[in-house]
C-alpha cells in the first residue's frame, strides 16, 4: 500500500531545522517539562478562564440590588468566601475581579515593555545625541511618582473624556490606570535594556553583521533584540507584577472604577466597610491571595521562558 | 595558477561593472592610514605597497601593532571611526577603492573581499542559528530570498566539512574548530575574490589549527581563492602562503616569495624575527629577543623606523627613509644595507626554509 517515496528519517536525532509547527511543539514540550513552567501556566490558565468566562463559574456579577446574602456573612452556608457588607458574594466579586485586574496588568505590561524595549534598544544601539535625548526623557518619567501622577491624571482625563466614555469597549477609568502605569514604568525597562544593549553592541558579531551589510534596523532586530529577549521577558514579568499591584493600590485609595470590581476595588470596599476592624478576614483574603497568585504565576512562567529562550542556558545545567 | 575569474563555478557573480579584466586582482600602492587621536595622529600604515594575484596566498607578518590588520581592513575601509586612508591607491580589478564613498564601497565588502575573523565565538551571534548567520550576507549582499540563502548556507557548511544538519545549531553547540570552519563558510558566502584571514587560527589548538590551514589550502585550490593571511605565526605562513610581507611599524620591511625570504632574510628585522622563532631542526637554545619596543607611531623616528633597535644601524638609517630595493629573485627590501641599483642578485643565506618545515611554493 505505502510506496517507497517516503523520505528517510533524518540521520541525526538533533539539529534538523524542524518545520514551524514542530518547533512550536518542541518549545511547548520543553516548557511543560519544567515544573515551574507547568505550575505557573496552570495558575495563569485558571485565572485566564476566570477572567474570560466569569459567568460560567459564578453567574452574573452581583450588585447591591441583586445581592442575595446577609451583611458580612462568614464563609459557609452557600457562600464559600462569605459576603460583604451589602450581602454580595465575595467569591462572585473576586472571580469577576480577575478580568479587570488581569486586563489592566496585561495592557500596562504590553505598553511598558514595547515602549521600554524600543527606546532602550534604539538609545543603546544608536547612541550619541539620540541616546542623550531619549535618556533625558526617560529620566523625567523615571522620577514621576506613580501614585501622585495617577491622582492628578485620573480626574483630569476623566473630566475631559467623561467617566462613561469607552475605548474599544474598555471604560475610560481603566485606560487612565493603564496609561499611568505605562508612563511611569517604561523608563525602568528602557534603562535596563539600554545597559545590556551597550555591552552587546561592542561584541564582535555586531561588527561582523555590519561588515556583512546589515543596516542598523536589521542589526537591532536580528542581532540585538534576540540577545535581550530574556531581559525583556524578565522585565515583562516584573512589570506585570508592578502593574497588578499599582492597579490594586490605585483602586484601593479610590481612584479605580467603582463599577468595575477589580481586586483593588474589593479591597477598597473592604476598607470602607471597616472589614479589618470587624474581623471580616474573608472580605480581604480572597482578592489579596489572587493578586499574590497571579504575580507568582507570572514569575514562574517568566523564569521558565527565560531559560528556554536563552539557548546558552541549556548548557549550564 | 592564475584563475580566470569568469569561469563558472569559480565565480558565480559578475565582476563589478568598471572592472578591467586584464588588471591584476589587487594592487595596493603607497597606502597610508592614519588614526586621529586626542594627542596627535597615529601613522599606523605608511607607504605600504603590495599586490595579490588570482589564486595566490599572501602572508602578512610582524609584531603586534605593526599595521597588519589595519592594512587589510583599510582595503575595504573597515577602519574604526577615527581611522582614515590618507593617501595611496587600492586597486581591485583595476578599480580604485580609496575614493569610493561608504555606500559605494559597501558593494565590495564581502562580495569581493571577505574576512575570517579571529576568535569565532565572539564573531558569531550566540542566539542565532549558524545557518542563518551564514545566510545573512547572501540575503543582504546578493539579494537572494531567505530560503535559497539557507540552502546555500548548508552547502557552504558541507564545503568546509560540517554536516549540513548543523545549520540548525547554535554557536555554543559547535566545537572551536567547527566554529572557525563556520566563519570560513561565512567568508565564502558571496564567492569573494579575496579572503582575508585575520589570525584565523590563533585561538585554536595545534591539531585544529592544522586542519583549518589544510581547509584553507584546499579551498584555495578548489575555488581559486586568493588569500591574505595575517598572523604572527611564521610557520603558518611558511606552510600556506606563496609570498610573505614582513611589516614593521606601519611599513613594509621585506616582501617576496616565502621560500626566498625565509631562506635568506635580507632585512635585519626579518632576520631578527626569524631567529626569535623556535626552530625544530637545530639544538634547543634560548630564542633571540629583539631588544627595545616598536616606536610610538604618533611620532615615529625619522629615517628607518627599525633603526633604534637595529644591530646593523648606520648613521644614514636614522636620517633617511630607506628606499625599497628589488632583488633579482623578486624580493623587495627596504634597508640601507643594500645599494639602490636595480636587480641585485640574492645573497647566499641560511636554509631556514627547511627548518620551518615549508614545502615548495604552489607555483
Task: List its salient traits.
heterodimer, A: 317 residues, mainly alpha, MetI-like fold, 13 helices, disordered N terminus, B: 363 residues, alpha/beta, four-stranded antiparallel sheet
Description:
The complex is a heterodimer of chains A (317) and B (363). Chain A has helices spanning 20-32, 35-52, 54-58, 90-126, 128-142, 146-161, 172-200, 204-212, 216-252, 263-272, 275-278, 281-309, 313-316, and strands spanning 166-167, 170-171. Chain A has 317 residues and is mostly helical. The two termini of chain A are 47 Å apart. The longest helix of chain A has 37 residues, at 90-126. Residues 1-16 of chain A have low confidence and may be disordered. With 363 residues, chain B is an alpha/beta fold. In chain B, the strands form two sheets. An eight-stranded mixed beta sheet of chain B has the order 6-7-8-3-9-10-12-11, sandwiched between helices. A four-stranded antiparallel beta sheet of chain B has the order 2-1-4-5, with helices on one face. In chain B, α4 crosses α5. The model of chain B is unreliable at 1-9 and 348-363 (pLDDT under 50). The chains are: A mainly alpha (317), B alpha/beta (363). The interface between A and B is medium-sized, with 27 and 30 residues.
Q: Approximately how much helix is present in the residues of chain B?
A: 25-40%
The chain-level mean pLDDT of chain B equals 83
Which runs of chain B of at least 5 residues are low in confidence (pLDDT < 50)?
Answer: 1-9, 348-363
Class computed from helices, strands and strand pairing of chain A: mainly alpha
> Spans of chain A with pLDDT under 50 lasting ≥5 residues?
1-16
Order of helices and strands of chain B: EEEHEEHEHHHHEHEHEEHHEEH
Give the helices and strands, then pairings.
The complex is a heterodimer of chains A (317) and B (363).
Chain A: H1 20-32, H2 35-52, H3 54-58, H4 90-126, H5 128-142, H6 146-161, E1 166-167, E2 170-171, H7 172-200, H8 204-212, H9 216-252, H10 263-272, H11 275-278, H12 281-309, H13 313-316
Helix pairs in contact in A: 2-4, 2-12, 4-5, 4-7, 4-9, 4-10, 4-12, 5-7, 6-7, 7-9, 8-9, 9-10, 9-12, 10-12
Chain B: E1 26-37, E2 40-52, E3 57-61, H1 68-74, E4 83-92, E5 95-96, H2 102-106, E6 113-116, H3 120-123, H4 130-141, H5 146-159, H6 176-187, E7 194-198, H7 206-223, E8 226-230, H8 234-240, E9 243-248, E10 251-257, H9 258-263, H10 268-275, E11 324-326, E12 332-334, H11 352-355
Parallel strand pairs in B: 3-8, 3-9, 6-7, 7-8
Antiparallel strand pairs in B: 1-2, 1-4, 4-5, 9-10, 10-12, 11-12
Amino acid at each position: 500500500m505505502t510506496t517507497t517515496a517516503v523520505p528517510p528519517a533524518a540521520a541525526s536525532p538533533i539539529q534538523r531545522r524542524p518545520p514551524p509547527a514542530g518547533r512550536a511543539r518542541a518549545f511547548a514540550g520543553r516548557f511543560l517539562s519544567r515544573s515551574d513552567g507547568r505550575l505557573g501556566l496552570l495558575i495563569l490558565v485558571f485565572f485566564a478562564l476566570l477572567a474570560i468566562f466569569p459567568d460560567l463559574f459564578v453567574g452574573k456579577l452581583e450588585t447591591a440590588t441583586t445581592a442575595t446574602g446577609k451583611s458580612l456573612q462568614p464563609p459557609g452556608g452557600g457562600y464559600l468566601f462569605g459576603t460583604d457588607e451589602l450581602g454580595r458574594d465575595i467569591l462572585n466579586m473576586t472571580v469577576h475581579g480577575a478580568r479587570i485586574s488581569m486586563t489592566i496588568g496585561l495592557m500596562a505590561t504590553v505598553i511598558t515593555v514595547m515602549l521600554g524595549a524600543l527606546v532602550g534598544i534604539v538609545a543603546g544601539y544608536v547612541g550619541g545625541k539620540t541616546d542623550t535625548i531619549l535618556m533625558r526623557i526617560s529620566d523625567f518619567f523615571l522620577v514621576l511618582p506613580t501614585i501622585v501622577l495617577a491622582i492628578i491624571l485620573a480626574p483630569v482625563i476623566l473630566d475631559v473624556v467623561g467617566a462613561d466614555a469607552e475605548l474599544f469597549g474598555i471604560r475610560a477609568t481603566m485606560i487612565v490606570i493603564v496609561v499611568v502605569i505605562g508612563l511611569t514604568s517604561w523608563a525602568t525597562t528602557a534603562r535596563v535594556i539600554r545597559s545590556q544593549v551597550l555591552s552587546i553592541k561592542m561584541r564582535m558579531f555586531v561588527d561582523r553583521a555590519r561588515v556583512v551589510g546589515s543596516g542598523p534596523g536589521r542589526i537591532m532586530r536580528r542581532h540585538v533584540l534576540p540577545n535581550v529577549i530574556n531581559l525583556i521577558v524578565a522585565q515583562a514579568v516584573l512589570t506585570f507584577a508592578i502593574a497588578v499591584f499599582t492597579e490594586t493600590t490605585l483602586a484601593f485609595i479610590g481612584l479605580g472604577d467603582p463599577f468595575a470590581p477589580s481586586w483593588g476595588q474589593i479591597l477598597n470596599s473592604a476598607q470602607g466597610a471597616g472589614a479589618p476592624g470587624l474581623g471580616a478576614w474573608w472580605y480581604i483574603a480572597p482578592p489579596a491571595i489572587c493578586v499574590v497568585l497571579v504575580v507568582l504565576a507570572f514569575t514562574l512562567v517568566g523564569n521558565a521562558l527565560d531559560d528556554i529562550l536563552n539557548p546558552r542556558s541549556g548548557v549550564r545545567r | 595558477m592564475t584563475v580566470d575569474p569568469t569561469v563558472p563555478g569559480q565565480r558565480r557573480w559578475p565582476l563589478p561593472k568598471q572592472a578591467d579584466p586584464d588588471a591584476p586582482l589587487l594592487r595596493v600602492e603607497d597606502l597610508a592610514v592614519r588614526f586621529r587621536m586626542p594627542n596627535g595622529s597615529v601613522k599606523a600604515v605608511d607607504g605600504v605597497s603590495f599586490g595579490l594575484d588570482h589564486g595566490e596566498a599572501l602572508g602578512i607578518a610582524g609584531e603586534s601593532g605593526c599595521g597588519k590588520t589595519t592594512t587589510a581592513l583599510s582595503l575595504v575601509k573597515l577602519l574604526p571611526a577615527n581611522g582614515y586612508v590618507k593617501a595611496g591607491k587600492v586597486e581591485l580589478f583595476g578599480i580604485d577603492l580609496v575614493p569610493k564613498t561608504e555606500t559605494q564601497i559597501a558593494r565590495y565588502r564581502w562580495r569581493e573581499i571577505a574576512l575570517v575573523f579571529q576568535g569565532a565565538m565572539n564573531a558569531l551571534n550566540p542566539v542565532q542559528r549558524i545557518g542563518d548567520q551564514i545566510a545573512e550576507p547572501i540575503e543582504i549582499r546578493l539579494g537572494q530570498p531567505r530560503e535559497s540563502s539557507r540552502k546555500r548556507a548548508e552547502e557552504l557548511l558541507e564545503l568546509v566539512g560540517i554536516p549540513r544538519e548543523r545549520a540548525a545549531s547554535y554557536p555554543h553547540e559547535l566545537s572551536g574548530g567547527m566554529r572557525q570552519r563556520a566563519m570560513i563558510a561565512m567568508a565564502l558566502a558571496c564567492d569573494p575574490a579575496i579572503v582575508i584571514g585575520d589570525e584565523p587560527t590563533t585561538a585554536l589548538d595545534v591539531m585544529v589549527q592544522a586542519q583549518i590551514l589544510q581547509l584553507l589550502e584546499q579551498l584555495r585550490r578548489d575555488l581559486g581563492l586568493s588569500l591574505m593571511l595575517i598572523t604572527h605565526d611564521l610557520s603558518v605562513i611558511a606552510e600556506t602562503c606563496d609570498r610573505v610581507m614582513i611589516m614593521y611599524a606601519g611599513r613594509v620591511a621585506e616582501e617576496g616569495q616565502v621560500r626566498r625570504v625565509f631562506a635568506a632574510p635580507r632585512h635585519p628585522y626579518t632576520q631578527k624575527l626569524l631567529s626569535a622563532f623556535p626552530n625544530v631542526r637545530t639544538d634547543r637554545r634560548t630564542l633571540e629577543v629583539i631588544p627595545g619596543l616598536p616606536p610610538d607611531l604618533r611620532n615615529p623616528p625619522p629615517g628607518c623606523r627599525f633603526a633604534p633597535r637595529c644591530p646593523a644601524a648606520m648613521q644614514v638609517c636614522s636620517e633617511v627613509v630607506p628606499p625599497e630595493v628589488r632583488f633579482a629573485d623578486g624580493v623587495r627590501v627596504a634597508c640601507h644595507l643594500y645599494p639602490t641599483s636595480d636587480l641585485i642578485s640574492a645573497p647566499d643565506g641560511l636554509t631556514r626554509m627547511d627548518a620551518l618545515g615549508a614545502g615548495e611554493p604552489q607555483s
